[in-house]
Design a protein that fits this description.
The chain is mostly helical. About 70% of the residues lie in helices and about 0% in strands. It has helices at about 5-30, 40-50, 65-80, 100-120, 120-155, 160-165, 175-190, 205-210, 215-240, 255-280, 290-310.
């Protein structure tokens, strides 16, 4: 298949699996807690229900409030188009430079903060303040983590990193970097121990506080963007662990379908691990968040040091 077809298939697959990923986390957490749990496909019904609901707009909302869902969803779609999630060598892979990806993540976070502030609610301002604190401490770790992979692979493009066959099993010194990427994924996706995605309590809200004033299709867009980003990070980590399952340009339809099946298995495994993690740990108090993010940074820095030593040897 040609690169355009591969990108189209990847986009359809990831967008289709995103609600399923959220449903899997909820199902696995329910089973671990001794409950039956809802079907993982219930998330599709929830998104469809939100799309049919009427929107209630704050009286003081400006164009920023209305633009935010589109920008946040567009930033998530950009990740799907440029990152190697089910295939490598896609049509837009050249735009998947580590600095571009880090910048797009920041753009989505900044507009989400602006949307929370624009509603002029106490919850939105509180969540926006917390989000910017987390983002300012997290972005250096994001860049440092991908910089280590770039050093090991010789490519600053994330597609090039995986196309080179880079894997932690072939290069064990990258294990700290993978661990740092996992810590980054938890913070970027507002999961435990950084945030609790299932709460509406003032003391624990970060992401939910910023979208509390949204409803209807706008809320569906924000929630779908969150699900897409969670899916993208889960697949990216899985691909750094097992990159051999990715389809390449020129692959047959059978090979592409095998890559899609492998991506689905990676996603289910990642969601099961996330559910287990969220079931055994508690959310951290916000004033201790700098300890978590500093630990992620030092872990990424340790991975970079090991990569430099390996390169020198």
């Amino acid at each position: 298949m040609n690169p355009v077809s591969l990108t189209a298939i990847q986009t359809i697959v990831v967008l289709g699996l995103a609600p399923f990923a959220v449903g899997c986390v909820r199902l696995f957490k329910a089973r671990l807690q001794g409950r039956r749990g809802a079907s993982p496909f219930l998330s599709y019904v929830a998104f469809a229900t939100l799309l049919r609901k009427q929107m209630v707009m704050p009286e003081d909302a400006s164009w920023v409030f209305r633009l935010t869902p589109f920008v946040v969803l567009a930033s998530a779609l950009f990740l799907v188009l440029v990152l190697p999630l089910t295939t490598v060598g896609g049509a837009l892979a050249a735009y998947g430079d580590l600095f571009v990806v880090a910048g797009v993540l920041v753009i989505g976070a900044v507009f989400l903060v602006m949307g929370g502030l624009d509603a002029a609610s106490a919850f939105g301002g509180m969540g926006a303040s917390r989000e910017m604190t987390v983002t300012s401490l997290l972005e250096p770790t994001v860049i440092l983590t991908f910089a280590t992979f770039a050093l090991a692979s010789g490519s600053t493009g994330i597609d090039g990193m995986l196309a080179s066959g880079l894997s932690v099993f072939r290069a064990p010194y990258l294990f700290p970097t993978i661990a740092a990427l996992g810590l980054v994924a938890l913070a970027e996706n507002a999961r435990y121990p950084v945030d609790n995605p299932a709460t509406h309590l003032e003391l624990t809200m970060v992401h939910e506080a910023m979208i509390l004033e949204y409803s209807g299709p706008y809320l569906a867009m924000l929630e779908f963007a969150s699900a897409i980003k969670l899916t993208a990070f889960a697949l990216l980590i899985g691909n750094f662990l097992v990159p051999a399952t990715l389809a390449e340009p020129g692959a047959s339809l059978t090979m592409v379908m095998a890559a899609v099946a492998a991506a689905a298995l990676k996603l289910v495994a990642a969601m099961a691990a996330l559910a287990l993690l969220e079931s055994v740990i508690a959310k951290m108090r916000f004033y201790r968040m700098q300890e978590y993010l500093t630990g992620a940074f030092l872990t990424a820095l340790g991975g970079l040091a090991l990569a430099l030593i390996q390169r020198a040897v």
